[in-house]
Design brief:
mainly alpha; 3-stranded antiparallel beta sheet; two-stranded antiparallel sheet; 4% strand; disordered N terminus
Length: 538
Amino acid sequence: MKKSAPSLWIYAFCFSSFAAFAWWEMGHLTGPAGSTDLASLGDVETPQQCGPERSYLLSDIGKISPVFVRTRSNGPAEAPPKECVSFIMQNFIGLNAKSVAMAQCRGARGEELSSPTRGADGLGYTPPCVTEPYVNSVYNSLVDVGDCLNIPVKELLPKLYNESGLHVNTLGGGFDAGVGQLTVSALREVFMRYDGIPQNPSALEWYVKEMSKSSKESCRRILSEKSSFQLAVPAGQEICISGEASAGNCYTPWSSSNRCVVMSAPANPLRNVLFTGIFYRSMLRNATGIAYSAGEDILNGRRYSESGSLGGYIGAGNFVERLQALGATHASPTVIKQIIVSLGFNAGIRSGKIYLENYIKQKEAKGKFVRNQDVDFQNVSTGKWAIVTNLPTYWRGLGSEDVTELNKAITSLEILREVGVDPTSAQNIYRRLRPLAQEELKKINDNVKLSPDEKSKMITDLKVKYDKYRHPLLLSVFQKADELTLPEYMRIAHAYSIANEPGAGGAPGYLSFIAAKHKQLEKEMGAQVCTAEKYLQF
């Protein structure tokens, strides 16, 4: 388990980038998922209620086309009600305090920025005012893109709740941006040649062309808002194709320096949601083989229906048939698709397929059964493995001045017994490490010559230094993780991948985070009001 410092640093960065909000929620309850003091069950706010601190988006939202900011009388029957959007917006994070999760694309003098700011103090902003036009702009964008591109919005809402709270100006630790929390890799996919074929245009251009062939009103409304797919490019430059050699006049919308492209209103939220939809369709095709043509789902040249056999990763892996043979009689392609595509947003489209394949293969090799309840992300807690799978959790007991955090960590290490590992040695090492970590941390914090940024970097390096003691524990658990449920296995396997594969990223436990959001929405808003049936569970 030798690890180089750079790979461990990448692990620390990737976790903070992709899991900041989920970590805050799981580790510092009460956050939005754990709070019983919910802001609303779907009401909207007025500028008078919000005050000037939270009204900073109102002017730009007012410039959005009336088609997308007015309240519509009806929509697709399968669409969630608008109250789902306003509820999520108001319960993502606390409404009346600054948060680094919130950024702006306007400077102190109101000037437009190409790269978002978290404010002069770096502490972010309060969430924007949840007015009816703002809610409508996001809701109508989601419903139209979902209808036009055949994307189940109710499956997306738990993910978007977890990551962006459906806000236009949410900014993740890795500059993941806006409603869809678009990352560099997601945006590259939008501006890459469709299907990777050199003769094809970019995915964005390809989908816009196919949308134009559809008779759906939703597609027509999107295409009428040309700013959703036509970007303003600086004079003398042109948008280049991602992944290809770039000329000196190349404009790269996926660059972090241009992140306001998918955050600034009035082009957004529609542009951000459209790009998110295109990224979703790309992952769906890899997972299932289902393509998009003139507003329809197509598989093997024919219109696809839910009862049809799938291609892609799911068809090639025969996952449904193999799980049924192992005893999971309720295994369904819909849930398998949810697992692979949902994790694809966080860790790449191949990750879910790899973890699922390895889990099934190990069960088959050992002749072990898989029960239907073993594939239930909503009701299986994976948080108990955080001490092994997540660097911030492992560090907390070492770096916190509060001794109770040490005691919590020692108790958490008892989880090793579930895979037949005696935790005594790990607990003793942890006790020995704490005073050493505390001493080094104090030296950094007491050094008046260091700037805040220098201290932050040194503390990150310190965490990486002590993280090497977690890795043998992760290895010992990973070697027996196939004896656990699929949610537990995927969290552990994901963590192991991050620690051992250069470039691997994401948040271990991601599917459990969004399953928890699904469960909360079911509890607060009603069964299947904002959510899909049997989401991430057989």
